[in-house]
């Protein structure tokens, strides 16, 4: 995945202490995804995943302020190397908000897996920065999933 200089793109790299297969599966197995998805302190009481190109996905995240739903369509599911999908929050009126695209790659390294996330086409840099905090916190929980 080439690095981007687009100010409406978010790029995060994290090394996870597990194999690429295990980390990839944590993204597509509902039983694992609900254990780490969403910022720390947020729960994921519901997810519906159809991890194949063209398959839909939806997650519901619960905070102290209520629930938020995000959904999209998988565009690539290449275990254990690459996962790509669209992403949009459900708005109060039930419509889908601004859509971004996400690509996650998984590379074996001595310490486990180097996972790189690229999310592009944010409406604003503020939205990008909010996602940086959210993904960073989520990845803390993903690391904990493999530390146990």
Please give a structural write-up.
This protein is of the alpha+beta class and 148 residues long. The chain has a single domain (10-147), classed as Alpha-D-Glucose-1,6-Bisphosphate, Chain A, domain 4 (2-Layer Sandwich). It has helices spanning 20-28, 30-36, 125-147; strands at 10-16, 43-49, 56-63, 66-78, 82-89, 100-109, 112-120. A seven-stranded antiparallel β-sheet has the order 1-7-6-5-4-3-2. A hairpin with a 2-residue loop joins strand 6 (100-109) and strand 7. Helix 1 crosses helix 2. The radius of gyration is 14 Å and the shape is globular.
Quote the average pLDDT. 95
CATH superfamily: START domain
Compressed to H and E, one letter per element, the order equals: EHHEEEEEEH
Overall, the morphology is globular
Distance between the termini: 30 Å
> What strand order characterises the main sheet?
1-7-6-5-4-3-2
Biggest sheet details:
7 strands, antiparallel
Beta-strand content estimate: 35-45%
Count of DSSP-assigned helices: 3
Tell me which oligomeric state these chains represent. single chain
InterPro entries: ASHA1/2-like_C, START-like_dom_sf
Organism: Nitratireductor mangrovi
Protein name: SRPBCC domain-containing protein
Family: Belongs to the AHA1 family.
